[in-house]
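Re: export button greyed out
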Amino acid sequence: MRKAIIIAVLAVLVLGTMIIWFIRSGATLDFGGSSIMVIQFVVLAFAILVVVRRMKSAKQKVPAEDEMSKGILRKGAATAYYVSLYMWLAFMFFEERIDLERSTLIGAGILGMAVIYALSWIYHSYIRKSHD
Amino acid sequence: MTSRIRELRARDNLTQLDLARKVGVRRETIVFLEKGRYNPSLKLAYDIAQVFGMKIEEVFVF
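Workaround output, generated via the alternate export path:
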């Protein structure tokens, strides 16, 4: 339960910080700006999903993490790492073609990694047929 | 690997949640075990067998 609260607080802090940055940087809702907003909401949706699952487990008096869910986390992380390598390669390839500051590009890459991890975890949790 | 968990649960009148609580795992893990989509660790297999008062090889079929 405590971990669920920490995740919820962190998600709100990340979202709040991103919104403040978005407003203060004067970014507009063009392709780049709206992409960042979409990524933020994906990250937030993932955090909400994790918190809901943990609270449900707490209510049912079963552990929030067991050997299977830990295995899913590990597999999700491994897949996300592998896919992220290709994402960074793509970023390097398109860097000269996209007119973005390097810090923005790195920020987008970090957010991209978070999204890839979320999608990878969802794939291993709900779509993949076997967990072996 | 297949298991007789569903059959033994019915025999002992246990829900998936009851069994999950007894062996300290999430209900989803029991669901996946029953469907043969997850191979448990030796400890979990032993704990489940203990709940039913049986040996591991009587619960899990290799």
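Chain B touches chain A at residues 17, 20-21, 24-29, 32, 37-41, 44 (CB under 8 Å). The button fix ships in the next patch.
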